[in-house]
Amino acid sequence: MPERQGQVQLGKQGVNENFIKTLKNHFNKCKNMKISVLKSVRKNKSDVERISEEILEKLGRNYTARVVGFTIFVKRWRKDVR
Fold it and tell me: Could you give the angle at the alpha carbon of 53 between the alpha carbons of 32 and 4, nearest 5°?
């Protein structure tokens, strides 16, 4: 069975407590998440990098992220990766 990847969009509310709670809920079902950063949140690529760091900081230690364009791919690991 292939790995399931969840998808969410980050809108004008930004990275708030509710968004992090939603992400953690999705991580109960799958290891990888694809976060599409909408135009209302970002102006350029460096904004997406900053948002990625903020998400990782709020999620905790068992997560890593990769930014491709205006999309953030977050992966949950079983063990600490940092």
Answer: 5
Percentage above 70 pLDDT, the chain? 91
* SS3 category, 18: helix
Phi, psi of 44, rounded to the nearest 5 degrees: -150, 180
**Within 10 Å of residue 57's Cβ, how many Cβ atoms?**
10
Digit-coded pLDDT (tens) for 73-82: 999 987 665 5
The CATH architecture to which 5-76 belongs is: 2-Layer Sandwich (3.30)
Tokens matching residue 75: 């992966």
Q: Per DSSP, what are the bridge partners of residue 65?
A: 74
Full-model pTM: 0.87
Extended strands (E) in 1-82: 5-10, 32-37, 63-68, 71-76
Q: Please, are residues 36 and 7 in contact by the beta-carbon 8 Å criterion?
A: yes
